[in-house]
Amino acid sequence: MEFNREREMNESKMKFFTNVSHDLKTPLSLIISPVERLISEKSHSKKDDLKLIHRNAIILMDEINQLLDFRKMDQNKISFNPSFNNFAVFVSEICNSYNDMSSISNGVTIETCIKESDIETYFDKMKMKRVINNILSNAIKFNTRNGSVKVTLEKIKITPGPDLISLTIADTGIGIKNKERIFDRFYQEHNNSSTYIGSGIGLNIVKEYVEIHDGKVSVSDNEPQGSIFTITIPVKEHIEKTDKNYDDEQRAIDIPDSFNEKDLESSKKTTLLIVEDNDDFRGFIKSCLCDKYNIIEACDGCNALEMLSLNNNIKIIISDVMMPNMDGIELCQNVKQNINYSHIPIILLTARTADEHVLDALREGADDYITKPFNVDILLLRIEKILNWTSGNHDKFGKIEISPFEITVSRLDEQLIEKAILAVEKNIDKSEFSVEDLSAAVGMTRGHLYKKLILITGKSPIEFIRILRLKRGKQLLEQSQYTISEISYQVGLSPKQFAKYFKEQFGVSPSVYKKDNKEE
Question: Given 1.10.287.130, 1.10.3720.10, 3.90.420.10, 3.40.1280.10, which CATH number is that of 17-74?
Answer without folding.
Answer: 1.10.287.130
